[in-house]
Amino acid sequence: MNMPDAPPGAALWAVISRLIRRDPWRYAATATFWMLWHAWALLPGLLAAAFFDTLQHRGPFGWGLHAVAAAAAAAGLLRAALLLMAVRTGVPLHFRTRARIQWELLGLVLQHPGSRASRSSGGLLSTFRDDAERLALAIDWPFDALAGLVFWVGGIAILWRVSPQLTLLVFLPVVTVVSVASAARTRLTRLLAGRRAATTQVTGFLWDLWVGRDTLAAAGAEARAVGHLARLNVQRRTAELRDRRGLLALEACFSGTAQLGVALVLLAAAAAMQDGRFSVGAFALFATYLVQVAQYLGFVGYLMDSARDAGVAVQRLADAGPPGSAQSLGQGTSCATAPATALPPLVEFAATVPMGSPAPPVTIRLTPGRLTAITGGVGSGKTTLLRHLMGLGLERAAAVTWNGIAVDPRQLRPPHAAYVPEHPRFLSGSLRDNLTWAAEPSAQALDAALARAALDEEIRRFPEGLDTPVGVGGQALSGGQATRLALARALVHAPGLLVADSLTHALDADTEARLWHSLLAQGMAIIAVSTRPAMLALADDVIDLSS
Questions:
Q1: Rounded to two decimals, what is the model's pTM?
Q2: Does some domain include residue 297?
Q3: I need a labelling partner for 6 at 20 to 30 A (CA). Which of 183, 292, 329, 449 fits?
Q4: What CA–CA distance (Å, rounded) separates 518 from 323?
């Protein structure tokens, strides 16, 4: 897991502060209205005391019952107005924050293609949806905590004026609850992380079942796959129950201790009333605030649970992105990539690719119309070389020159250069969608690319032509069709440099020969990974990584 460098709590507060600074005025408005709404809870006790004191002809400021009733009605309208304004500012803030987290995480992933998350596609989708939601909720935590503190301090101050001795009893459950919560925090965080991980496993495996159903059917492994899903669900249920038991135990501690404190204080207050030291209004005031102060303890539990959720969410979001994602969230990372720098037509290409100790660096030099083949045994680093050459590796970057001028490997993008990976990915749309997702080529360019990729004749035989669906991730295509579709997608840009990984491994000999002769006739500079003798015989240069 890509854990943040800072402690989890510090990382969470850093992300929250950055998110707040992204929309400070809306946040300030939301915080103000919610704090006023929380502080409003101080009014009912004062109004109750005024009501009973008025019955005893000791009303404040000489108020009568009608004045107290009018004040109560005004207080109710004030509460509704505060709630309306808090919702009108807070709901847009929440959705904007959640969208911003998702947008920025997607931007981090797109701008660091060399990072490879360890979780499945379903698990990553769960992170984008659920953990972004929990982190977005966490930005309410600061003003919720401050509002609760303001209310609690205000309530204690009012109770102190009524009876300092009885008010001191209120602190007993507070100390108990805080001590228990602090002791249980680490264990509860671990239980929550386990529950999230178990849920992610189930979600991810469901996605794997869906996209791999043909493989399971061919292997006759449906029953074993369903059995594995059942075991994952048992693990998820166990983790869920453990987490819920921990939370319920903490909630019971909050509520039980608070109610015990209320009972003790009310018994002491009743004794004071018998001695004549309490008026009816003072007792009503005290009873109202005791309940509210006790409820605040439950609110503290909610805030601690929210902070725990958000801390785990930050760690999971960091795991979904490249290293350092926790430090980047909230800084305004955009999904949009910078436009590719215009490069002149290719005359000479050179690259030095570090392969890591003890292997020496690999040097590649070629000109348009020449083919350099990369070959070697399994695990020799063929794919790794191409990824570093194209700027897709995080660890090592290639030194690249284009016509003798040094360029960033990340500039090797269409229309100047194109990369065809060994296992290409496709949109769950049509053939046309997958050929035009990066640009909208002309009909002539599209036809030419299909012909060069030796895919034109097959598409003519499809009933729906270019509008034929490719299925989820391209499952409707054969291995050879998928490879040639990825090649056609690269060729629509007419690149000066083509980098291909095991391009013809799924093709028959005749199609392979036709394809290579077609590509070499275009005058492109080509770097290709292959172990096929026919392709190696066509190459102008061969780099064997086995030696």
A1: 0.63
A2: yes
A3: 183
A4: 42
